[in-house]
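Entry:
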Amino acid sequence: MKAWLCENPVGVAALQWKELPLPEPAAGQIRVAIKAASLNFPDLLIIENKYQMKPPLPFVPGTEFAGVVDAVGEGVKGFKPGDAVAAFAGTGGFATHACIPAALAMPLPDGFAFEDAAAFICTYATSHHALMDRAALQAGETVLVLGAAGGVGTAAIQIAKAAGAKVIAAASSDEKCQRCLELGADAAINYASSKLRDELKVLTEGRGPDVIYDPVGGDLAEQAFRSIAWRGRYLVVGFAQGQIPALPLNLALLKGASLVGVFWGEFAKREPRRNAAMLGELAGWYARGLIKPVLDRVLPMEELPAAFERMATRQVVGKLVLRTA
C-alpha cells in the first residue's frame, strides 16, 4: 500500500508519500481499500502538532474516507469483503488502505458515491447534531450560518433548509455568498465588506436570528451574539479563524439566550445508538436528494500538499476530496 506518512509533525512539507506494508486487520477491525478521502480542518492542525489529539509517531493523517471492505478481523459482525463503507476514524485516510475498528464504519446504501461519502460524515453529523439536537431547531425559525461556504457551513445550510428554517449565510466574499444562495440560503452577508450586525438587523426586521451556527470564532462571535434573538441559541462549533473568542456573558442574560457547545465526536462516543440513528437519517436524506456534499475539488491522492495549500489559504468552498487511482 501507499500512504502519506507524518514522521515529524511540523507541517505539510514534512509529509512523505511512501510504500508501506499492507496491514492486516486485528480483532474487531476491518480493512478498507480507500477510494476517496476528504480534508477537514483538524487534518491540517494534526500534522502541525496543534490538535488536541496527538497520535504516536509515525502516523498516516486523514480523518475521513470511504471505500470497500477487503478484509475483516476476528469477531467482526455486520461487514464482509465487498461492502461499501465510509468512516470518520481520526487518522489513516490519506492512503490506499486503512485498518479501522468496525464500529467506526458507516455502511453505504446503494448509489452513494464514494467521493460524496468521503465528505459526508464529519460535516453533516456535526451540523445535524448542532442544529437538530443541541439547538432543537424548529420550522420557521431563522438560522445564521457563519463561515457558510465551508464544509460544515454548506452542510448546515442544507440541513436547516430541510428542517424548514430560514437561512442567512455569512461568508467572506461575494463569490462565496453567491454559492451559498445557490445552495438554498435565503439571504447572504459578505462580512468582509459590510457590517454583520447592520445586515442582520435589516434581514430579520430587528428581531435577530433564533440560532447562530458558528464554526469560525474570532472577532465575528461577539458581533453575532449581540444580534441574537430573544431565547436564541448560539452554537459553538469550532474556531477556524484561529482565535477563541471571549464573550461578555451579560449578553446571554439580556437576551435570555443559550450558549451551546457542539462536540459531535464526543457525542458519537458517549451516545453511539443516537449517533447511528442520526447517520441513518442523514443517509436517507441524501438518497432523497435533500442534502449533497459540496465538493470544491477532487484531486488525486498524490496531490495532498496542493490540497492543503488550498485549504490553508481559505479558497475552499465546501470540501476538498482526494481520490485513489
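The longest strand covers residues 29-38.
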